[in-house]
Amino acid sequence: MRSFAVPPALVGFIFLLLSLTALSYAAGRMAGPVAPGMHSTVEKPGGAEDPGMSDMHGMGAVDRAGQGGR
Description:
mainly alpha, 2 helices, 41% helix, elongated
């Protein structure tokens, strides 16, 4: 009866995959946000007073109603 052994190439591949993932994650954390004005996704304590995207002026449902037959 043969014993179950993991091939060394598979172990090396998994180690390489995990190390490259960790390095890319660390580089992304050091680089910061990808666009100016991006903020954390952590919600503020107490909840948000305005449940919309306040910096997206002109994109509300009221504004779309007046656009006509687009």
